Every structure is written in C-alpha cells, then in structure tokens.
Amino acid sequence: MAINLTKDNFDEVVGAGVALVDFWADWCGPCKMLAPIIDELAEKYEGKVKICKINVDEEEELVTKFGVMTIPTVFLLKDGEELDKRIGVHPIEEFEEILKQV
Q1: Measured in whole angstroms, how far is the alpha carbon of residue 15 from the centre of its chain?
Q2: Cβ pair 45, 51 in contact under 8 A
Q3: How many other β-carbons are positioned within 10 Å of the β-carbon of residue 62?
Q4: Is 0.90 topped by the overall pTM?
Q5: What is the number of other CB atoms lying within 10 angstroms of the CB of residue 81?
Q6: Largest alpha-carbon pair distance within the chain?
Q7: Torsion, CA 93, CA 35, CA 54, CA 82, rounded to 10
Q8: What is the rounded CA–CA span in Å between residue 34 and residue 36?
Q9: Complete domains list, the chain, with CATH
Q10: Nearest Cα residue to 68 out of 56, 58, 53
Q11: Sheet of strand 18-24: strand arrangement
Q12: Backbone φ, ψ for residue 36 (5° rounding)
C-alpha cells in the first residue's frame, strides 16, 4: 500500500532513500486511472522503494514546493532530491524503467 504523505511526515519519509511520489486528487479522472499502477508498484517494490501519494487538495504547501501544475504528476526522489518526473498516466513499465536508475 502506498504511503500517504503530508507536510508533517514528508521529510521523515522521503528524506532518506528512494521514493516515488504521486501527486493526485479524488476528482481527477487520470489520477484514478493511475491509482492501480501506483498500488501495484507499492506491492512490487515494498521494502525497496517508498511508493507515496500526496493529495493536492490537502497539501498545498507540497504542491507549491514541487511546482505541480498538472495531475497526476509522479516524482522519483532520492534522499529528498528530484531525479525524474512524469506528468500524466504512463504504463507500469515506464515507472519500473525509471526505478532501475537507482
């Protein structure tokens, strides 16, 4: 299961190690299409990569910090630093490919 991030737990969760962070919203159709892919990645990479979700309606501070203008937007972070970013819905294979970078 993906980790729900907030401004309160963000640094603690993604400050060290590798994290894939999905910015999403309940009302976003493409976000709903991406959700099963994020869930599958969370299951497949459990213990290796932190798979996380940020609700853009609840975490405006993080949305601003990352400059998210469109959702879904997925960031690959290592030790809190951005390595890669994908906007929109992509196949699971594409996310697995960027995870191989780290």
Answers
A1: 14
A2: yes
A3: 18
A4: yes
A5: 10
A6: 32
A7: 10
A8: 6
A9: 3-99 (3.40.30.10)
A10: 56
A11: 3-4, 50-55, 18-24, 73-78, 81-87
A12: -65, -30
Kindly state the tokens that stand for 41: 């990645």
User: In this structure, what token pair is assigned to residue 66?
Assistant: 């990352």
Peptide bond into 72 cis (omega under 30): yes
Instruction: Give the pLDDT confidence of 62-102 residue by residue, as tens digits.
Output: 999 999 999 999 999 999 999 999 999 999 999 999 998 88
Q: Name the residue among 85, 97, 88 with its Cα closest to residue 30.
A: 88
Q: Which two tokens stand for residue 88?
A: 């929109």
H or E element that contains 40: helix 29-44
What residues are annotated to the active site?
Answer: 28, 31
Angle at 33 between CA 31 and CA 37, to 5 degrees: 95
Write out pLDDT tens, residues 24-53: 999 999 999 999 999 999 999 999 999 999
- Residue 56's nearest CA partner among 75, 36, 78 is 75
